[in-house]
Amino acid sequence: MSAAVSAHEVRSTPREVIYDDGTHNRALLGFIILSMDLVMEENIFRLCPEGVGPSVTRLKTHNDCNIARLAEQIDGMAEAASILQPQARPSVIYYACTSGSIVIGEDRVREEIRRGAPWAKASTLVTGAVSALRRFDAKKIVVATPYLDEINTMEAVYLEQKGFDVLDIQGLNIEDCEAMGRIKPSFIRDFALSVDRPDADAIFVSCGGIRTLDVLQEIEDVAGKPVICSNQAMMWDCLRRANISDVIEGYGQLFHMDWGQST
Prior knowledge:
Mean pLDDT: 93
Number of domains: 2
Strand order of the largest sheet: 2-1-3-4
CATH class of the largest domain: Alpha Beta
Structural class: alpha/beta
Radius of gyration: 21 Å
Number of strands: 8
Distance between the termini: 64 Å
CATH topology of the largest domain: Rossmann fold
Largest sheet: 4 strands, parallel
CATH architecture of the largest domain: 3-Layer(aba) Sandwich
Low-confidence stretches: none
Number of helices: 11
Shape: globular
């Protein structure tokens, strides 16, 4: 037995511990994601450059994706924000749900995030999507979603209120959130391209719980126009809000753009 250890008591040798800035020496970002989501967390980590640390917490949510259930998510928002590294304090905290952002409302979500984490810049996934579309000066857009048509109707109104001409919005009428994460990326690619129109300035694939990121570059290459998907837009917007302007290859034109504006 070591001289430093007796049979009754452990006594560690004193050491001078050396610290550095950790995994988030450039920025620490916070994300509130849904409890049943299969996609979002992996996408966040995939799109974080070196030196940017993502901190993720789960919001307890139901598997049914409809207006009533989405509206309930505001109830746990402040508490979820409060447990996102409260000592390290993320510079930006995002509510990572497109449809929930629309149903609850951006201002209400931001208010609750700030109540739980008053030190952070608060934002929502749909805020990032709008910022990305505006960065391309897109006026006429088409939208593909997995949502029920009751949600698609709200989204069309929301986007029109933001100044976009929604030429078409098509949904898959899926209510099962977990099932959304299992939609084949090749199907998402073909679905998005089927919604496109020659007069559309951009394609928006809406929903953070589907694997659009896996095929986004393919969609953009075939369509020959900007393609915005929820998670790509959120990460671009979030990184720019944190003053991180890295170019990330393979996920469309967006990551080659600076922020250019505040939304």
